[in-house]
Amino acid sequence: MIAFQMTSSRGRPKDLVKREAILDAARALLLEHGADVTTSAIASQAGVAKATLFAHFPDKDDLIDAVIRRESDRTVTDTEYEKSLAMDIVPALHEFGIRFVRFINEREIAGWDRLIAAAAKRNPELPKRFFASGPGRGQTILTSLIQDGIKKGRLRECNAVQAADDLAGLWIGFSNLEVKLGARAPFTAAQLKKKVDHGINVFMKFYGSSDFGSEGTLSTKSAREGSTRAR
């Protein structure tokens, strides 16, 4: 587990509380003002000295990277990913899909897109670094889940990276762009689940192994069993 997820019966260590405060402040200001926000402004909003900020994060790029990495945990934490490997492929994809689509369903996702893209003005390599900590991590995890499904014989042999890209495309679609641009309201929980289930059903019809048969369709029962096992 990464440090800021650890808890203690006596409360979180003081420096951990400050780290979280810095990350919270940085998240809010980065989404509002972009990467041009100063470390002084972040420290002020977090209620800490700049020296404290730099004690946790050597420079602003490291801080931005940590903020993006924490956002990635909203899709799936390392522990949740390990648990999903013990699940069958359909409920595992469902668990990941619900979290992934819920995250990209938020209108502020456009702020993250702008933040990562704008980083290229300072350093052409930064977008790659930030992508790897955020969206790229999700891509790696989804690819790994698909590779596990292939290994277990639940998915046919295929290019797992391409398969992950196909499934993500089914989940995102034009409707996500509408949400980001404010052309439609974010999906309700019911609409979000329907979108995830539809994407998995289409995906399994193409990528499901020949002996997977009708099991490839997502049912309420399988999704519920997956949720129970994931707890």
Automatic annotation (TrEMBL):
GO terms for molecular function: DNA-binding transcription factor activity; transcription cis-regulatory region binding. Keywords: DNA-binding. InterPro entries: Homeodomain-like_sf (IPR009057), HTH-type_TetR-like_transc_reg (IPR050109), HTH_TetR (IPR001647), Tet_transcr_reg_TetR-rel_C_sf (IPR036271), TetR_C_Proteobacteria (IPR039536). Residues 38-57 bind DNA. Residues 16-75 form the HTH tetR-type domain. Gene3D superfamilies: Tetracycline Repressor, domain 2 (1.10.357.10). It holds the Pfam family TetR_N. The keyword Thylakoid does not apply. It comes from the Bacteria. The keyword Cytoplasm does not apply. This is TetR family transcriptional regulator. It comes from Mycetohabitans endofungorum. The lineage of its organism: Bacteria, Pseudomonadati, Pseudomonadota, Betaproteobacteria, Burkholderiales.
